[in-house]
Specification:
Two copies of one chain form a homodimer. With 625 residues, chain A is of the alpha/beta class. The first copy, chain A, contains 17 helices and 29 strands. In chain A, α9 crosses α16 (588-600) and α12 (507-531) crosses α17 (612-619).
Chain lengths: 625, 625
């Protein structure tokens, strides 16, 4: 899995020139975001929220028709400055080509660009303080703990029993020159000497399929190493339901599943530390973003009530959790903390909370639609005023399961299918011999067939003779295996193989995709209705997760998976869950923002809606045009 | 060790009649205290602090000269009521004989008499709440934790990961009828069904020598079972210094000492539960009062800095501690909390904090002297306005060590020695054949010899021929073993044994006692000077601990161990450390009071005082008269 920070996968419309460096960004973003998405630092202490007035930029004088000043610009600048082109980058919308001068950085706070172009001011929970303490005497019998805490008065940390056990010896052996390690409000360690230069955290995206770990230098915000691997729970089944079922059948399964998830995290932690040249003891905090089932399982919480109506979580918020509680006892500092992202509902989990944080859904004025496509598809609609969330049961089609020639997006998977009446071309992951079709290839293939008219709006293949007329170059690909009609995407071997040996798309595969996309479309349709809006009101669609990164925006629109809006407004947001986890480690403020989301989001349950089935059937056909 | 709750061992001065029941109490106590010390319940929600105005009593009309109304009485009652004899019991001081009517109880709060006659309103940290929860539905998808917490809104507890692990199953198996167990601010358990009738705690007095456990019913405040045993650390040495030294010599000793202390607590916990018919899972909180070394060791905190100047504790206050942290994992509820009493200094430990709480040192208007006699003697002087504390190195004489025929206060120990010129009589613990002399017997013997003039004021035995003249009935007892002069207390066997085979007091033993009592007297003398007071200002001396219970007040005064004040004002306070631990379990308010003591007590270090040695020498002789 690649961490996608670049939302310019479909860069169009606006050409910007930052200090002479050209970048292309979607129309409608702020110059602040446009700069930070492209790694250009602009002064800011508020992170682009219009409060610090430090993100000064100048529209170069020969730009024709410079952006109009906003009311904040008028307060921040003199009339002469405004005439001279000075603007606040976070308030200036890129709607046309413009050249911009960015002054050299002057402000001290360090920031990092994380998430979907989020500029995060570094304020990690992990803090270090080098202390040179006065030695005790008969005239100064303050306890060792008091001696340390007096120097940390502004942080007011609690102490831990484990720190006290060795504190006396540490102070005396280190000659009272020590470094205090405070995580949030807890003094978790006192280390000999000055270790203030070394503090790290690990952000985990704990997926049902894939788990990603990013080792972060908390002093700079820089990712030091990234590793991913399959979740070791895989043998228990591909999706969360099979894993929950396992715990219901076998009393030992919960322990086993917990252990496997924990081993996955520990192995990744050891790998990123080894690659990054970081000692396990230098990792003082981890963040874990996962769906509700993964989170329950890794913490050893009985997931059974998640698995059946009315789909109840044991908890939305988690109490104080240690890294040891998620199996990292030996892999990071023994008293390292863990931030576990809370869930909105049984099927809108902590991964979505993290994703919303990373994509700034709660801070953007525009109405945006966030869609994380998978077996369970999470959908969030809203802006900074309101947010609605739901989960749609899309089924495993996008994971390649239940599709005859389907496979996960791994080497050998057809990820892009391009069709004209005259020819068909494939793009295969790893440039290998095609082995099967992954979700994005499936969507592309169906889209192409619909566009060429080989599939009708109801999703049925047209008669073979009509197909030959419409797309002469694809003749022979539309055929049958037994009774079932199939479309061959790739014949194996030098000779055209028999259809059953080829990589093909079957009529039933098309139906699977229709069911999946209808479920998702029903989800966002209902959210739009709840909000009193229509598809046209959606200003941006964020496709989250690895599948979203591979999916062609045009195809997604063409088959009705997302609302019909201009293609450039459909943006692959990448691994937003992992990005949210990174943000939580880098900034206590962002972490609090993630928690606050729980109050801001209203969860809409689909499974008890009387109208769900009717709407689902309505969404099955492919949109016309 | 006996838990002494009765301070009326020397009841004098005032005769009271509560609803016809006569009691005798020291002059100067309030009628509220006088009643509660004698087990007579009076309505109160504030526990006798003049705030609730519920402790209504009536001085019976034919009492002559009834106590004058206080300003609070005037606010609480009409003039007619006051004329009729109505008073607030907590404000009315018993200075003369009086008869009192106590109305039947009307208020709900339960109270218990604990400590040195302290009436404690029950408000334990352990609370139980029976909940009948609404079953979740698609229309009500609140998480299991939210469902429980909504019913505990007034308590605002945190949850624990361990509770969440099984919460889903518990709720469903118990049909959503459960009992929440909240300790202070933490939800530690959710139990199926209604278990509100069962909640227990264990108060530990963790002594260097003896450990006492009291199982308390937290619903009623009643002790259910009491057990004591020797601290299993004994093989490492009798006093704290030898145990600290062990950890300095042997890197494995700290672990071993921790384990032994923990095993002691666990064995006692199992014993009191077995005797009380209580399941370990029904014990949700424990309290531990011990000196600084014992507390450090049982928690596994390196005690080395306690053992040498400048005598530094790792910490005065303890962080959140679980019963499991003191070795009670299997012996009480697995998530049971532990209250560990904080220490004022390396040698004025948590046992003294508990003792001061139990004796109400910080709430009494009278200047009182608290003395806990042992190898290390803790001394506290003060009243509700100010408190001074110190520790005096008394040495092991009172423990029977360093005394030729000394022994601990166990079966066979001579605990009382009564002497006249004509005869000598002994009281032996367990009514057994005398085996040796314990601390109280030692003090009695020396006192008797001083009073009869057989020891002169400097502590030297007078010539044998003079002795025979002064105390003819004791002739032959004052003799020699080799060069050393000895006084035989008990000849073994039917024939008078040789002096070396008898139980005797040697000249060197007398010196040991002089050193010990001089160290203690120097301690309280210095505190008196710091306070600008003299011995005559001390209104009460509280002798804490088991030794204090055995010691004769008259003897203690006679040899100058305590200030020269009227004998009835020297009170054996009993096992006040254990009583303080009980109070902490029964009342969060009292527990907070114990913590507040840390701020109220000023610690006076003796070992760096230039004048200590001179003063010590001054205190060596026995007082005249």
């Amino acid at each position: 899995m690649t961490v996608t920070e670049d939302v310019g996968a479909q860069p169009v419309r606006v050409n910007l020139l930052f200090n002479g460096r050209p970048v292309r960004v979607p129309s409608g973003v702020t110059l602040f975001d446009a700069a930070s998405w492209n790694g250009i630092a602009i002064d800011s202490t508020c992170g682009g929220h219009g409060t610090c007035k430090k993100c000064r930029i100048r529209i170069v004088p020969n730009s024709d028709d410079p952006p109009a000043p906003t009311s904040l610009d008028i307060r921040a600048y003199t009339a002469a400055e405004i005439k001279d082109g000075w603007r606040l980058a976070c308030r200036t919308i890129a709607t046309r080509d413009v050249a911009v001068e960015v002054p050299p950085l002057t402000t001290r706070p360090k920031a990092a660009t994380v998430g979907v172009g989020r500029q995060v001011i570094l304020r990690p929970a992990v803090q270090k303080r080098y202390l040179e303490l006065a030695e005790p005497s008969l005239a100064d019998q303050a306890s060792d703990a008091e001696r340390v805490l007096a120097q940390l008065e502004d942080l007011e940390p609690r102490t831990e029993l484990a720190v006290l056990k060795t504190l006396g010896r540490t102070l005396r052996e280190a000659d009272y020159k020590v470094t205090a390690v405070v995580v949030d409000d807890v003094l978790i360690a006192v280390e000999p000497g000055d270790t203030t230069g070394r503090r790290f955290g690990i952000a985990f995206d704990l997926g049902t399929t894939t788990v990603v770990a990013t080792l972060l230098d908390l002093s700079t915000g820089t990712p030091v190493a990234v590793e991913s691997m399959l979740n070791k729970q895989q043998p228990f089944g591909a999706d969360v339901i099979t894993r929950i079922s396992a715990t219901m059948m076998d009393p030992g399964a919960l322990d086993k599943l917990q252990q496997l998830a924990q081993e996955t995290l520990a192995e990744l932690a050891r790998a990123v530390c080894a690659h990054g040249g970081v000692q396990p003891d230098e990792v003082y905090e981890v963040a874990v973003a996962g769906n509700a089932t993964m989170t329950h399982l890794v913490l050893g919480i009985d997931p059974e009530p998640l698995g059946m109506a009315p789909f109840i979580m044991s908890t939305r918020l988690f109490p104080e959790v240690l890294a040891a509680d998620v199996g990292l006892a030996g892999a990071v500092h023994p008293r390292s903390r863990a931030v576990v992202f809370p869930a909105f509902g049984a099927y809108v989990g902590g991964d979505i909370t993290a994703g919303l944080l990373a994509s700034g859904m709660d801070r953007d004025a525009r109405v945006r639609l966030f869609v994380d496509i998978g077996t369970n598809c999470e959908i969030v609609l809203g802006n900074r005023e309101w947010l609605l969330a739901t989960a749609a049961p899309a089924g495993p089609a996008f994971e390649g399961a239940a599709i005859k020639c389907g496979m996960r997006a791994a080497d050998g998977a057809i990820e892009v299918v391009t069709m004209t009446p005259g020819e068909l071309s494939l793009k295969v992951i790893g440039d290998a011999e095609p082995q099967g079709l992954c979700g994005s290839g499936l969507v592309d293939a169906v889209t192409g067939l619909v566009r060429l008219g080989l599939l009708d709006a109801s999703g049925r293949f047209i008669p073979e003779e009509e197909a030959a007329a419409r797309a002469p170059g694809l003749a022979g690909r539309l055929t049958r295996i037994g009774q079932e009609r199939v479309f061959v995407l790739h014949w194996r071997g030098p000779e055209k193989s028999a259809p059953e040996d080829s990589i093909y798309l079957s009529q039933r595969d098309v139906r699977e995709l229709q069911f999946a996309k209808a479920a998702i479309a029903t989800g966002w349709q209902i959210l739009l209705e709840e909000a009193g809006l229509t598809a046209a009101d959606v200003k941006q669609v964020l496709l989250a997760g690895s599948f979203g990164s591979y999916l062609s925006a045009a195809s997604a629109i063409r088959i009705g998976l997302v609302p019909k809006i201009p293609v450039p407004r459909v943006v692959a947001a990448g691994n937003v869950a992992g990005e949210g986890a990174k943000m939580a480690l880098l900034s206590l403020r962002e972490r609090a923002g993630g928690l606050a989301l729980l109050e801001e989001v209203r969860y809409v349950e689909l499974s008890d809606r009387a109208d769900f089935n009717d709407r689902f059937v309505e969404q099955l056909p492919f949109p016309g045009g």
